Amino acid sequence: MIDLDVAGPAPESAPGRRRPRTDVPRPLRVLAVLVLALVTLGSATAPPAPELRMVLAANGTAAAAFVLGADSLYTASHGIDNPSNESAVRRFDLVDGSLRWAAALPQGVQNLQVADDAGVLMARSGTDPRVTFLDHTTGAVLWRLASANTSVVTLTGRGVLIRTDVPGATELRLADPRTGRTRWQRRLDPWLSYGPDDLWSGTARRIIAIAASGSVTTLDFGTGATLAAGRLDGRLHVEGDRVHTVGDNRLVVFRPATGAMPLTAYSVVPFAPLWRSAESGESVSDCGPVWCLTRPDVTGVDAVDPATGRVRWRTGEVGSAARLSPEVLAGYATGEEPRMTLLDPATGRVRQRLGTVVPVGGLLLHSDSEMPGQAWVTVRQPGGAIRTLGRVDTAVPFGCAADGRYLACPTTDGPTKVWRLP
Fold first, then answer.
1. Total structural domains in the chain?
2. Among 379, 375, 415, which residue's Cα sits nearest to residue 394?
3. Residue 24 pLDDT more than 70?
4. Does 169 lie in the same domain as 129?
5. What are the beta bridge partners of residue 177?
6. pTM summary value
7. In terms of domains, do 237 and 119 share one?
């Protein structure tokens, strides 16, 4: 093992210079030999550092979709007779690698989501309006959704948020994840966008609905009660204007057509305009002490003050950035192989260049340039040191998923594989 953080040996003495002689008493020399022997023996018998351990190669063929749950992997495979309209959904135990159950569904499945706290697995496709909800313990079908112009916004342990577009309005309802029974239902102006940022992570307390009419309605996730309502400064142009939520209580609107003041920030609860800026932008993300703003006409990132909209720093080092941890930003330079650079959120200063890296949960996956189809799994430790956990056989690390103690990846030879983290 090569430790790149260890300094090399000291340089030799200059030619012609006589080294000072150090006489060590013989008893000390004997003691040193004994200590060296014990250290060497201890190193030889010490257990190796823990590494990734593969616990499952599922199905033997590539999965159309997979998702990690608590100590389980769920996969969906295309049907043999009719791949577009048949699927097999399976659950594998990650403790012993066994198949727990398999269920056949009369629909193509391209997306799986699981809510362990509700005991529900959701299966859906990109085009088929049918959505099936299964018991994650047995594979039994609990209920189905097959309404026209209807889609599932998110599945959480507290409910399934369902959106239906009807003439002149959007109907929103929260359904019980195990029965489909409606808990609350609201009719709103037709949506253009919605949030907040954590709406899809299963932890959202609010729903922010932004309509093309300019109305903004914020609802309590659990009850559907209105927390706040207001209007933007005029209608939104669907083709040109952009709307982003930042965190769970901020809204940013870009209006390229308005010229002098294209960017406006709002508080969500209570609803109120906060500031306007002449900065133009295409997207914005929460970068801790700043918001990271990207622009369509300039390669780089502008860091704006969330309280005033003023630019604190700019960098052309990366094309986009987002918060990786409270003390560091992950910036990406676009290209054939996006490269990651770690930035200081307060100043934009480069802290570390990591090269071609794909973040997966708290892990960093590096494609092996010398061994196609392989990727190194590393983790950034406090202080910036990179610890290597092992190597996985995947050519598409951006398709991997990490949850708790496990990492799952589509692999070069076909099956979805799962590794246990050390």
1. 4
2. 375
3. no
4. no
5. none
6. 0.83
7. no
Distance, in Å, from the CA atom of 298 to the CA atom of 307, rounded to the nearest integer, reads 24
Query: What distance in Å separates the CA atoms of residue 144 and residue 156, rounded to the nearest whole number?
Result: 16
- DSSP 8-state code for residue 44: H
- For 179, the token pair is 């029965």
At residue 32, what are phi and psi to the nearest 5 degrees? -60, -40
For 72, half-sphere exposure in the C-beta direction (CA atoms, 13 angstrom radius) is 23
| 219 and 247 inside one domain | yes
Q: What's the confidence (pLDDT) of residue 45?
A: 41
> Do 177 and 229 reside in the same domain of the chain?
yes
The first and second tokens of residue 279, run together, are 């900065």
Q: Are residues 187 and 249 in the same domain?
A: yes
- Residue 46 carries which DSSP code? S
Secondary structure class of 198 (helix, strand, coil): helix
d(CA 363, CA 361): 5
pLDDT digits (tens, 9 = 90+) for 129-176: 899 999 999 999 999 999 889 999 999 999 999 999 999 999 999 999
Residues 164-204 have pLDDT tens digits of 999 999 999 999 999 999 999 999 999 888 899 889 887 88
CATH number, position 334? 2.40.128.630
Q: Where are the beta strands (DSSP E) in 256-411?
A: 263-267, 272-277, 283-287, 290-295, 298-304, 311-315, 320-325, 328-333, 339-343, 350-355, 358-360, 363-367, 375-380, 386-392, 401-403, 406-410
Range of the structural domain that residue 331 is part of:
280-354
Query: Which residues face 334 on adjacent strands?
Result: none
